Amino acid sequence: MTPASTTLVDRLRSGDAHAIARAISTVENRQPGWSELLKALFPHTGKARVIGLTGAPGSGKSTLVNQLAKDYRKKQQTVGIIAVDPTSPYTGGAILGDRIRMQDHHGDPGIYIRSMATRGSLGGLALATADAATVLDASGRDLVMIETVGVGQDEVDIVRLADVTIVILVPGMGDDVQTIKARIMEIAEIFVINKSDREGAERVEREIRAMQSLAARTRHDRWTPPIVKTVASEGVGTEALVAAIADYEAYVKKENLVFKKNVENWQERLVEMLRDAMLEKARGQMDGASLERYAAEIAEHKRDPYSLVEEIVGALTKIT
Ligand SMILES: Nc1nc2c(ncn2[C@@H]2O[C@H](COP(=O)(O)OP(=O)(O)OP(=O)(O)O)[C@@H](O)[C@H]2O)c(=O)[nH]1
Ligand SMILES: [Mg+2]
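Above: query sequence and guanosine-5'-triphosphate SMILES. Below: predicted holo structure tokens.
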């Protein structure tokens, strides 16, 4: 560790927002020193509760997270928010929205909000988000909330790293329960029906209940995800959501599942980290030109891709 990053760690640990921002940028963009930084931060992590929220675009995730942050601040909890937008590289909309939200909490250093977009390289967004959460955890935040648009596998990977996962549905947007990917439904520890001021909230609730009773297998932790109705824009129902989150946390504790859940999460995350590291290494060895040349050779059937991949992976394990 260089002295400069030592002071960065110290400043971050004291909760300094600029230090948090710099640290997240460093790990998000894999700038020099990113892994040293995370190594130094890791011993200070494991204390924050990580809450993942996912739902369709416009379902009110940001509004809800904003309200939750206010509720938790009333309980003297410090909050870090990561807003992930995997749909576009640099969404002006999301960033602008977050600026507005920042103003909402203006002057409260107990709330830190950060937007993340897809990392330039292949995949890696789930990992980058997890690393950003690690930074916030190390900075001493009691709570880290991760909000992401629930549209695909990426989001599932992102919220899977959370201690509590909340799936947000809304009435009448055509995104009925049936159209929500089964995988997303499975990961929910809590369902929220936001925009319950609109017609159709009861119907969404019935559909979730029906789906729960039809589910072929019960969850391995035997938890039945509750359904909380909210009107996030009015702050209605968010206290009940805070209570539902606390209930789930108490349940996991009572059933001695905390460690087990942590191990499961780390198992997933380790595989991601290995995938990332191996790929990085392979790409480091191979410039774009040779990748193109290999591809051309395969296309011309001069070479088979299976042997090539074996060769590359073999070479990787020799160099350390
Ligand atoms: N009627 C009603 N409108 C709401 C409610 N919650 C949020 N909204 C509105 O819905 C719109 C979208 O809310 P956001 O919080 O930006 O939704 P989001 O899910 O974060 O959206 P993206 O990040 O773009 O996917 C805003 O105009 C909110 O004011 C609610 O409970 N009822
Ligand atoms: Mg949003």
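Residues 150 and 173 are 14 Å apart (CA to CA).
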